[in-house]
Amino acid sequence: MKLHDEGADDEQQEQQQDEGGGGSHGAPDDSGTVNDARTLRFVTRDGCGRCAESLAAIRRVATRLAIPVVVEDVDASPDLYEAYTDRVPVVLDRGGGVVAEGRLTGRQALWTVLAARMRRGRSPGTPQV
Fold first, then answer.
1. What global pTM score does this model have?
2. Which listed CATH number (3.40.50.12780, 3.40.50.300, 3.40.30.10, 3.10.129.10) goes with 37-119?
3. Nearest partner of 90 among 32, 50, 36, judged by Cα
């Protein structure tokens, strides 16, 4: 099942997300973080080819489902570095739970975004069931 046709609109939406645009659905709050319960956090590292490939796949699916993706550099945060330096790319839900890690393309990307979408009712800090 195809959610919609690929085309220039997809590229424009991806560019808007890269620039932080795309409507109020994923608007940053005063802390600079995206204020949306469905937000995916994508932990990456500069120069990581596997990360770039996985991020592109995750963004394609997330854009179609209107789920914001926030990209975070593992080397820019001591907490992220300690937890994920050897595991990038890693996809976290808004509460910090690991949704997926490693190479994420095609179906893995689709299932990752869908799993995160299913977790949207969880509040930060709520244990996974």
1. 0.66
2. 3.40.30.10
3. 50
